[in-house]
Write a structure and sequence with these properties.
By secondary structure, this protein is of the alpha+beta class. It has helices at 10-29, 50-61, 67-81, 88-104, 107-132, 138-218, 222-251, 266-275, 291-311, 349-360, and strands at residues 279-285, 316-324, 327-335, 364-372, 375-385. The protein has ten helices and five strands. A five-stranded mixed β-sheet has the order 1-2-3-5-4. It starts with 9 loop residues before the first helix and ends in a 10-residue tail after the last strand. Mean pLDDT is 82; it is low at 389-395.
């Protein structure tokens, strides 16, 4: 399969054409860099000058796409040019090839060219002086330095600046990407927090409303209907108050509203569960706790009572909180099995939310059926560290 050469850059083509025309102009008027009787001139006459000029112009067109090849071929063309009467444009284009090899070439070429040209400059200075024993021989080293070392050094400086600018651009892009990832993560975390709050605050009241409204519709008893409507109204008012609190959180995310529930509100929470028809006992033994731990424990008890209201069989529901060994243990048990009467549907988000709350504080959580002396029960158990170095913040 044929190898397809890369297409030259438009600027390089223009530079090559300008160099070729400029060299032809100097050739046409008879301006050369050496006289015909110079001992170094091996190819006398004006026509040999055109060959290295044309080759160097062709290399100039490839200065960006094939910089290393262009430099090597240009070096050979310059060597031939030194054996003719010479053309100044050929030398100028060669200096540009040296510069381009350092700027656009591979990293290895960019490192080697300045060293090689530097050694050639030193050799071109020391050797002629040692051989010819004339001060004028220093000019040979000066010429080599101007033609080779100076373009290479300039290219090295430009490449370093270009690489530094590219590195700065990449760092800026990386910083922007990390900031966007942090922003997205913060938004996701806040959405999860709001979802937990919405579920925990409203699900209990809506579940009670759904169960009692179903009972009121299914039983043709005015007294039962009045009691169900009273419970429905109470849960509706409390649910509306909770929704207003959630709206306060959304409107002022930097400041938690003062109505954040604490464990002091557990008796009222249990009384509400009893009003909704659950037989609940509360046993709380704890001291002062950090606010995030109190909120997480309150929400876990609240969600457990909501699940008991929706799914538990007839029997007693127990709520126990105990603080020991630097952690708060929360345990809620309810009868496990089929229940009579209406049931509220569940989405499974409650267990996920309780597990997330415990994980945010570096604690543990488990829920599932267990065997007990009273038969099969559903147990929710959470362990929440109460130290001030918890890895999570308020849920």
């Amino acid at each position: 399969m044929a190898v397809r050469l890369p297409r030259p850059h438009r600027f390089d083509l223009c530079a090559a054409l300008a160099g070729l025309l400029g060299g032809l102009l100097l050739w046409g008027v008879g301006l050369g860099t050496r006289a015909g009787d110079d001992p170094i001139v091996l190819f006398d006459g004006r026509w040999p000058i055109l060959l290295p000029l044309a080759v160097t112009a062709g290399c100039e067109a490839m200065r960006r796409t094939l910089p290393r090849t262009a430099l090597l071929v240009g070096w050979a063309a310059l060597t031939v040019d030194t054996m003719t009467q010479g053309n100044l444009v050929t030398v100028v284009m060669f200096t540009d090839l040296v510069y381009a090899a350092v700027v656009y070439g591979p990293p290895a070429t960019a490192r080697r060219v300045p060293w090689i040209t530097g050694l050639l400059t030193v050799a071109g200075t020391v050797v002629p002086v040692a051989v010819l024993q004339k001060p004028e021989a220093l000019l040979i080293g000066v010429v080599i330095g101007l033609v080779a070392l100076m373009p290479a050094a300039t290219g090295w400086i430009v490449r370093n600046h270009r690489d530094a600018a590219e590195a700065a651009r990449l760092r800026a892009e990386q910083t922007t990407l990390l900031a966007e990832m942090d922003r997205t993560q913060a938004v996701t975390t806040e959405r999860a927090r709001m979802a937990r709050e919405l579920h925990d605050m409203v699900a209990n009241h809506l579940s009670a409303i759904a169960i009692h409204s179903t009972a009121a519709l299914s039983l043709d008893d005015p007294e039962t209907s009045r009691e169900a409507l009273a419970v429905i109204r109470e849960n509706s008012v409390e649910g509306l108050a909770e929704m207003r609190r959630l709206i306060g959180i959304l409107r002022d995310g930097d400041r938690e509203p003062a109505a954040t529930p604490t464990l002091e509100g557990l008796p009222a929470l249990v009384d509400g569960a009893r009003t909704n028809g659950l037989d609940v006992t509360l046993d709380a033994d704890h001291g002062a706790l950090p606010a995030p731990v109190e909120l997480a424990a309150y929400r876990i008890v609240q969600e457990s009572l909501t699940n008991a209201l929706k799914h538990a069989g007839p029997g007693r529901v127990t709520v126990a909180l105990a603080q020991r060994d630097g952690s708060l243990t929360v345990a809620v048990t309810s009868p496990y099995g089929d229940r009579d009467g209406p049931r509220a549907p569940g989405s499974g988000a409650g267990l996920v939310g309780m597990r997330e709350r415990a994980a945010l504080l570096g604690g543990g959580f488990e829920a599932g059926p267990e065997d007990s002396a009273d038969g099969k029960i559903w147990a929710v158990r959470a362990t929440l560290p109460v130290t001030d170095t918890t890895p999570g913040g308020p849920a």
